[in-house]
Amino acid sequence: MKKWIVLGIVLLMAGALLMWAQSSRTHELKLLPENVHWGYYDAAVKPVLRVNSGDTIRVETMVARGLQRLRAAGVAESEIPSALKAVEEGVKERGPGAHPLTGPIWIEGAEPGDTLEVKIQSFEFLHPYGVSGFGPTGGTLPEEFPYVAVKLVRLDARAGIAEFSPGIRLKIAPFFGSIGVAPDPLVGRISSGPPGHHAGNLDNKELVAGSTLYLPVHVRGALLSMGDGHAMQGDGEVTVTALETSLRGTVQVTVRKGKRLTWPRAETPTHYIAMGLHTDLDEAARLATHEMIDFLVTEKGMKRDEAYILCSLAADLHVTQLVDGTKGVHAMIAKSIFTR
User: Fold this and answer.
1) Rounded CA gap, 106 and 110, in Å?
2) Which residues, listed in sequence order, are joined to residue 152 by a DSSP beta bridge?
3) How many C-beta neighbours within 10 Å does residue 262 have?
4) Which CATH class for the 25-260 domain?
């Protein structure tokens, strides 16, 4: 009798695993010219992949600004993957932003008013180097550096380090600088440079593997795109560039029906994150604080005045970036303070 019970349990578990495998799929989205739109988010761009809620996608992306900066930094032609060269040659329509974006991806069931959960699982480098630098009109100190400089930095992915220069080793922490959905069709085409309600070029260094990004959905299918791979970045991104590279990222997408957000939110294994985006840094900080209070009220059941006080005691505000026109501030609060 016990054998039959054990056999029944095994069969039930096998059936459950089979149903899970059939309901959740993994898709490959390769770096090909037909899978890339360069420099903009736009609800009119046709999706290059359709997936179901709960599916996983391995997305290949190309370094921001393309090959011009790689070559200027001294990368040999033999070191540039053929996929990057094909996109550089094949994608003629570009701008106004500088980011080749892979997508968009249609997620079945996503509707305006929903939230798209993007669970970031892992990253791989498409080449063992990154580039950084500055230009004469960008960054936080353009008057002090009115010229162009680029720097090639070699990566050791296995060791998890970047050799900046002799005696300086940096810990790599790859993430997509830009993850976003299409804006409302009435907005039309928008630059991939400034972040906004659609998310986009957040340049938030907390969005590494193990983190989850929550995006408000503005159009049917959400139309998710990713790009602007960073090997690492400091808060502020003061020269306009992180350690720019090309990444393959694995993400799982899930539609949260009826979970309405105004601005993107995120969480890491250790922290909840609220974001503020505005051309004025003070306003961005106010928005991030407002969004964290709203999170504490709606998700943790707190009274609004107590949530405000808690933010002053336990929330840390970080400058995400200063250099994309629309500035970013993200408020972080540790999960460990909540006992229930």
Assistant:
1) 8
2) 131
3) 11
4) mainly beta
The residue count of the chain comes to 340
Run of H or E including 2:
helix 2-23
Residue 153 bridge partners (DSSP): 130
Residue 249 in contact with residue 122, Cβ under 8 Å? yes
Distance between CA atoms of 183 and 24, rounded to whole angstroms? 27
Beta bridge partners of 226: 102, 179
What is the predicted pLDDT for the residue at 21? 46
The distance in angstroms from the start CA to the end CA of the chain is 42
Query: Which residues fall within 8 angstroms of residue 326, CB to CB, at 6 or more apart?
Result: 194, 195, 196, 277, 278, 279
Instruction: Give the start-to-end residue ranges of the domains of the chain.
Output: 25-260, 270-340
160 DSSP assignment: T
pLDDT given for residue 123 in this prediction: 98
Evaluate whether 40 touches 190 at the Cβ level (below 8 Å).
yes
Question: Which among 96, 93, 87, 92 is positioned nearest to 66, based on CA atoms?
Answer: 87
Task: Report pTM.
Answer: 0.92
84 secondary structure, DSSP code: H
Contact, 194 vs 246, CB < 8 A?
no
Q: Determine the Cα–Cα distance for residues 269 and 120; give it in Å rounded to an integer.
A: 11
pLDDT digits (tens, 9 = 90+) for 263-291: 999 999 999 999 999 999 999 999 999 99
With residue 307 as reference, give the H or E element that holds it: helix 304-314
Q: Which CATH architecture has domain 270-340?
A: Roll (3.10)
